[in-house]
Amino acid sequence: MIPLVSVILPVYEPNPAWLRAAVESALSQDGVSLEVILVDDGSRRQPAEPIVADLGVRLFTTPRNEGIAAARNRAAELAEGAWLAFLDQDDLWDAGKLGIQLAAAVGNDLEVLYSNAREIDADGRITCHRMDWPAPVTGLLDLCSVNRVPQLTAVVRREAYWAVGGQNEENRLCTCDYEMWLALAATGRPFWYDGRVLGSYRRHAGQDTKDDFRGRCGTYYALWQTFRKYPAAFGPAETAALQSRLANLAAIK
User: Fold this and answer.
1) Which of 164, 145, 137, 147 is nearest to 238 (CA)?
2) How many alpha carbons fall within 13 Å on the CB side of residue 105?
3) Which of 4, 14, 163, 244 has the most C-beta neighbours closer than 10 Å?
4) Which domain holds residue 215?
């Protein structure tokens, strides 16, 4: 049977306990046919295969580390589901996440679904019960000031994912997901937000997102690439918001 959802799970030198918990949280989704596609992006010290060998996932290994965007694209190329859902190796989904989100898409012209999430620490303890996300995305302007879409909660139609070329593999600055949300908004793809908390984002030492300078550079890159690729999507309001954000990112702090 062709699954409705393909779960995209990139892996690089994973923590065994975290990875296993992430995969199990994907497999625990109720009432949704799915496949889990795990791409081990050239791990050497801690390969993923022995960690998930008994969990029934589709596992593929790349010969060298190509970056998280490339790993996600490799998994998306193999995907059979109409929808792609994204889960990183250290995050978790609540049991009913996919069912809640996909129910909203029935009979509606929606292409990007996302929700709220909590934060947990390295040991799985809740440190923030609900992230303080801004208002829902209604268009490109909303995304010019801040990334409003948490990667771990996002579900995207496979056709929409490839319509913008998937994730930019040249972006290795931890913002390839943000760049894709910008591209989807720039091409008029409709977003839908559920304010419920449906997943857990694990904060821990070693995350790329904890590097402020790298994050600022990555955000600048994602915004500039979007403007370069989709200039017609930037009206006066979007252009003003973009200029303000780029100036702020470029300021020395």
Assistant:
1) 145
2) 20
3) 14
4) 5-250
Task: Indicate whether 69 pLDDT > 90.
Answer: yes
CA contacts within 13 A on the Cβ side of 252: 0
- pLDDT of 252: 64
Q: What is the CATH number of the domain that holds 201?
A: 3.90.550.10
pTM, entire model? 0.94
CA–CA distance, 249 with 253 (Å, rounded to integer): 9
Report how many domains make up the chain: 1
Average pLDDT over the chain reads 94
